Amino acid sequence: MFYSAATILIAIFGGLLLLIALRTLLRGTWFWGWVRGMSGVALIALAILCGLVALDLRSYREVLIDKPVATISFVKVDEQAFVATVALTDSGVATDYYLRGDQWQMDARIIRWKGILTQAGGKPGYKLERISGRYVSIDDERSRERTVHALRDESEFGIDLWAWAYKNQGSAPLIDAVYGSATFVPMADGALYEVALSHSGLVAKPLNDAAKRAVNSWFN
């Protein structure tokens, strides 16, 4: 709810700035026209910035603790090779990814608001980032094919708030950025897992017998 409302408010604010800018630019006379022109250009730039921020915020979802964000199932296609089907909870979209290795991990981008935005009801938001495979053997990890796939649309158009906040960790006003990762979990033929959000990031839970056997045999 917060992210939808924030997106709409920022977009409306940007639209108002654009209207003011166009009205300013279309009014004439010399010196004051120049002043108005510079002001109009600045307002247009600010309106564009608001639009880009709104586009980025639109791709985030509010963090709800223990809320499933995806399910992932595996079909073994070769030795240490699997097709992973990731089904997103919010959209229902399912996508297949080819993973090499013995274990898988999913990462997410998480943004947390600070100060007045927290008081205004701003909740942390997340965006699934990538899924990757890993070999248990160090020799395999060094020499065999590595696989990692983006879960977000890398062609997204807009300002990357998370990347800016992560680069300026601790000094960015009003926002913090962190990675949330599920620990490496074994891949197995027929295994089905649920991925949920926790205070520390992502948690993978086995949902069927194949997944439970894989986890139990791995850690016991």
Provide structural commentary:
With 220 residues, this protein is an alpha+beta fold. The chain has 2 domains: 2-57; 61-219, no CATH class. The chain has 6 helices and 11 strands. Strands 1, 5, 6, 7, 8 and 9 form a 6-stranded antiparallel β-sheet that branches. Strand 2 (68-78) and strand 3 (81-88) form a beta hairpin. The longest helix is centred in the first third of the chain and has 27 residues, at 31-57. It starts with a helix and ends with a helix.
Indicate how many domains the architecture comprises.
2
Taking the sheet with the most strands, its summary is:
6 strands, antiparallel
The number of helical runs is 6
Instruction: State the separation between the terminal residues, measured CA to CA.
Output: 42 Å
Query: Could you list the spans in which at least 5 consecutive residues all have pLDDT below 50?
Result: none
The secondary-structure class comes to alpha+beta
Mean pLDDT: 77
Instruction: Using the alpha-carbon principal axes, give the shape.
Output: elongated
Order of helices and strands: HHEEEEEHEHEHEEEEH
Would you summarize the structure shown here?
With 220 residues, this protein is an alpha+beta fold. It is built from six helices and eleven strands. A hairpin with a 2-residue loop joins strand 10 and strand 11 (201-206).
